[in-house]
Design a protein that fits this description.
Strand content: 25-35%
Largest sheet: 6 strands, antiparallel
Number of helices: 7
Oligomer: single chain
Number of domains: 3
Strand order of the largest sheet: 10-15-14-13-11-12
CATH class of the largest domain: Alpha Beta
CATH architecture of the largest domain: Roll
Order of helices and strands: HHEHEEEHEEHEEEEHHEEEEE
CATH superfamily of the largest domain: RNA-binding S4 domain
C-alpha cells in the first residue's frame, strides 16, 4: 500500500486524496521506525478513513474517541506489540472560568474566537463541550499552556482556562430529531432543498457560497450524490444526517429519514 496506488484511492472521494496521503506517510513512519505516531484531532470521517487504511497493514490503531466520549479524536498508530497507554494520546482538558451569572458562552463564539481571531488550526483542538453551566475544550497537550496564556476573552466575555483531569470530562449532550422527506434523486441540491424546505435555486446558492459541508469537508458540487450516513453541516441551519433509506413512494420518489443533530 503506497501513495499513488489507484487501488487505495478508488474507495474514497477525490477530495480526500490529500488526507489519505498524510495517513500513508504516518503508516510508513511507524513501519520504518517501529515507534507509534499520533495524529492531530480528526473528525469522524477522517478517523474512519485512517482506521480502514491501517487495517490493511500489520499495525495497530487506537482512536481516543473509543475511550473518551467525544466527536473528534486523536488516533495512535503503532506496531502490533505496543500496549496502549491513554497518556500517549497527549490530550489535555481545559475548563473555562467566567461570570456565568451575566454571560453565556456558545460553541459558535468559542470556535470563532479560536479560528478567526487567534488563527488556531482546527486540528489542534477537539470537542468544545458545554453543559451544566460549564465549558470545556480538549487540546493537544503541548498546546495547553498556549491556550491558557493567550485566551483571555471570548467576544467581550473575560475568561480564564484551567487544566482539569480527563476524568472530569463533561458528557456530550447530543439530541436527534427525525424528519422524513421524499426526493427525486440523491443529488445534494435536491436533498438540501427538501430538508430545509427551500427552493432548489436557494439550495444551490448555499452550496455555491461554501455554506455546506459534507462529512466535515466543503461540498463543492451541487450535483454531488449523497448516501446514507452522510453528514451535512449547513451554516445557519444546523447539522443533518441521512439516517435511512426507506424504499420508494408510490410515485417513485426516494423515501429518506433525516436526523437533525443538536448539541
Amino acid at each position: 500500500m503506497v501513495k499513488g496506488d489507484r487501488v487505495v484511492y478508488q474507495h474514497f472521494r477525490p477530495d480526500e486524496q490529500t488526507f489519505i496521503e498524510k495517513c500513508l506517510d504516518l503508516i510508513e513512519q511507524v513501519e520504518a521506525t517501529y515507534t507509534f505516531q499520533v495524529t492531530e484531532f480528526l473528525n469522524p470521517r477522517q478517523v474512519a478513513i485512517l482506521l480502514s487504511l491501517v487495517n490493511q497493514t500489520g499495525l495497530s490503531c487506537y482512536a481516543s474517541s473509543d475511550y473518551y466520549d467525544t466527536e473528534y479524536a486523536r488516533v495512535l498508530i503503532s506496531p502490533d506489540y505496543y500496549v496502549l497507554n491513554l497518556e500517549d494520546f497527549e490530550i489535555s482538558l481545559l475548563e473555562f472560568s467566567y461570570n456565568t451569572k451575566f454571560n453565556h458562552l456558545t460553541h459558535r463564539q468559542i470556535l470563532g474566537t479560536l479560528i478567526n481571531q487567534l488563527g488556531i488550526k482546527r486540528s489542534i483542538f477537539g470537542d468544545i463541550l458545554i453543559a451544566e453551566g460549564k465549558v470545556q475544550i480538549l487540546v493537544e497537550t503541548n498546546m495547553a499552556s498556549y491556550f491558557s496564556q493567550n485566551i483571555g476573552k471570548i467576544g467581550k466575555i473575560s475568561v480564564s482556562l484551567k487544566e482539569k483531569n480527563l476524568n472530569f470530562l463533561l458528557p456530550r449532550m447530543v439530541h436527534k430529531q427525525e424528519k422524513d422527506i421524499l426526493v427525486t434523486s440523491w443529488r445534494a441540491d435536491v436533498i438540501i432543498s427538501e430538508i430545509l424546505n427551500l427552493s432548489r435555486s436557494n439550495a444551490v446558492k448555499l452550496i455555491e457560497k461554501d455554506n455546506v459541508k459534507l462529512n466535515y469537508a466543503s461540498l463543492g458540487k451541487v450535483s454531488q450524490d449523497l448516501e446514507v450516513g452522510d453528514l451535512l453541516s449547513i451554516r445557519g441551519y444546523g447539522r443533518y444526517e441521512i439516517a435511512r433509506e426507506n424504499g420508494l413512494s408510490k410515485s417513485g420518489k426516494i423515501k429518506l429519514t433525516i436526523e437533525k443533530i443538536t448539541e
